[in-house]
Amino acid sequence: MSASGVRARVRAEMTEEIKAVAVRHLASEGANLSLRAVARDLGMASSAVYRYFASRDELLTALIIDAYDAVGGAAERAGATPGQPLDRLLAVASAVRDWALAQPHQWALIYGTPVPGYRAPEDTVGPGIRVPLLIGHILMDAYQQGQPALGAPLTGRFAEELAPVAAGLGPDIPVRLLASTFGLYFHLCGAISGELFGQLANSIEEDRRGFFEFQIRGAAAAAGLTAPA
């Protein structure tokens, strides 16, 4: 391997090590990351860490992209399983929930309280829309299979606002389907966050997975996605 190749490999390994330590800091400090603290845990001078990440925000962005890609990958693997649209949606929702329960601090980073002073760059958009895009594809499959409720006309100011967004995604995407995608996605995120952040304490303790599926089935039905007769 050439000298430049060795340097690139060492840099990549060091970058991953810095991010791994930063993820551990999320568990104890939330998104209030300190490059100095990360450097201290690595046994490095803080100036050395700055050669890899120029600022706390740059490190946060890397962690956010990794988290979005991880949960998006889990969702896409679950959604690739053959089956009816509703079954695929439930599989995707369960995969997202499982990932969140296993990585609660990373979930909080991307779906919790916004980090004061941090503004996410456009680099985060592509990874961040992997899950809602997948939900939209599942709904589109159902619509093309003849579930007309998904494409029922939507009217009012909300519909007018969504119309150019739907047109930008494709000429055959009903505004109602796009609205249903947003509704299902936010319902999914809310159901998971409510569970993770303690809203089910002293109410539903034994079968939270069952309650989660109940919520997603209800949201899917409201969106017009039903099981085949």
What secondary-structure arrangement, pairings included, does this model have?
Blueprint (H helix, E strand, L loop, with lengths): L2 H27 L5 H8 L3 H4 L6 H24 L5 H18 L1 H8 L13 H4 L1 H15 L12 H13 L5 H22 L11 H16 L6
Structure description:
The chain has 229 residues and is mainly alpha-helical. The protein contains eleven helices and no strands. Helix 5 (85-102) packs across helix 11.
Could you provide a short overview of the structure?
The protein has 229 residues and is mainly alpha-helical. It is built from eleven helices and no strands.
Contiguous helical run count: 11
SS elements, strand count: 0
Q: What would the principal axes of the Cα set say about the shape?
A: globular
Binned, the helix content reads: 55-70%
The unreliable regions are: none
Characterize the biggest β-sheet: none
Record keyword descriptors for this entry.
mainly alpha, 0% strand, 69% helix, 229 residues
